[in-house]
Amino acid sequence: xxxxxxxxxxxxxxxxxxxxxxxxxxxxxxxxxxxxxxxxxxxxxxxxxxxxxxxxxxxxxxxxxxxxxxxxxxxxxxxxxxxxxxxxxxxxxxxxxxxxxxxxxxxxxxxxxxxxxxxxxxxxxxxxxxxxxxxxxxxxxxxxxxxxxxxxxxxxxxxxxxxxxxxxxxxx
Length: 172
Known about the structure:
mainly alpha
């Protein structure tokens, strides 16, 4: 691939204008070749940064929503609440959806807010990971299965890259 990119650059040196999109793209690839191919050398690195981008998207969206918090104190409360909701998601719980359990309706936020209003002082027991241990039926197991399948797929891709890299090194 590197040879092809170099040959495009050599063939189009006189034809492609320096400010054109093609020239900008070729310059970018040439200037960042090491960074663009780093994942080939280290199979633990992902090919893309989609997970990081999704997290940054959440931050940007929350920052934008924070413009309408009303006050500094309202913004701090909003940030704390959104942090709690993120922790709930990371623990494979659904913060909003009702789950019918033995005739009762359980929602994490509903349950925690009721305990807090009742004067509960043991905050560690109200954290999502502790609450999930007490209510295993509320865990979204399909999320765990999705994560497991994604990890298997990523490991397979890493193994393929490692094998491809070893074959290329043997040829050279």
